[in-house]
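Sample entry (67 residues):
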Amino acid sequence: MSSLNWQQSSYCAEGGSCLALTPSPGGESILLRESEHPEAVLSTTPGPLGAFIRAVHTADQPVGTSR
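Predicted structure, serialized as tokens:
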């Protein structure tokens, strides 16, 4: 899977533990891997990944605020 175009956040520090993602070769799912263990790849679809990101984003907000 090294020929895939893995993308990771610009917030990821060099040498840090970061999440990278790329579309699957067929484009039907999204592949995810962690920079410290790139051989372990997870697969998901845009809907569940989007729900997860929104949940994390919401949990990161201070109580009583909205974005």
